[in-house]
Fold this sequence. Notes:
The complex is a heterodimer. Chain A is mainly alpha-helical. Chain A contains ten helices and no strands. Chain A has two domains: 1-105, Rna Polymerase Sigma Factor, Chain: A; 107-182, Arc Repressor Mutant, subunit A. Helix content of chain A is 71%, strand content 0%. Chain B has a domain at 104-133. Chain B is built from four helices and no strands. The model of chain B has no long low-confidence stretch (mean pLDDT 82).
Amino acid sequence: MSSEAALIEAARNGSAAAFTDLVRTYREGLLRFLLTRSTSFADAEDALQDTLINAYRYLHSYDSRWRFSTWLYRIAINNVSKIRPANTVELRDVGDEESDPLQHCIAASDRENLWQCARRRLSDEVYTAMWLRYVEDMSVNDISAVLDRSVSWTKVNLLRGRKTLDAELNKDATDDKSKAYG
Amino acid sequence: MDNLAKQLREDAERIDCTVSEELDERIRASLHGVTPEQPAQPKSTSKSFAFWFASSLTGVAAAVAIIAIVNLQEPEPVPVPVDVAPAPLNFPTIQWHVEAAVLTTPLEQEIDNLQSDLKKAEEAVKQDIDRLF
Lengths: 182, 133
């Protein structure tokens, strides 16, 4: 039995300490993802807390055929979608304001962070699919399970997301060249 | 890894956020207050020996009671058929001479009109045929 499986078993039997150890490696990644999907840092922290509590409470429903991170992300996405309707501010609009939590957490750079751009240009689901693919290295099957979509939908929308961001990236490169040549 | 994938990964890493100690404490405290739910156990459907024994006894007692009731009842007297003379039938008399003219007059007028229209149409067709051939 792997250490993760052992921790899951212990957590299922009521060990909160085992569960804390189990999710330690996923917390930062989850918070980073939730931050990109929330309108404030506090919302992202609340969503992380709710995600972990729900995961602990319903751990018996975890199916070991899936990766544990896949299951966690599924819960996190449900929590974010519950929080979002209350906050009527659109994420697309938040990106331009100083109050954007994502803006505060991004290290200063001479070009815009692609994830900020993605937040403006892509739908919630496509954004999530792109994040899971390129940051979490999830397989297409896992992404479709997290989003509760078909594999073909996931493939098509990943391609669309890529094209959109690729165009943005190339546009930035062209702008840089034209600045360089005056 | 292509350029876009590399860029996306790098940009995600540039989002600097860590779980603060305060949040860590909050999560730990909430987890201690939660009890993981246990999967619902399927209810056992097997019955004990006493249940089946009692059911069998009840069934046998009910059968014996029904047999006893049926056999101890006195036979009902069979009714003797009595010849009954057929009663004379009374047919109502119908008044055949009813005036229906008031109701049918508009229809008769209509049929006369239709017949005259038909005749006119026949004549028109005959004239057309004679003219053509």
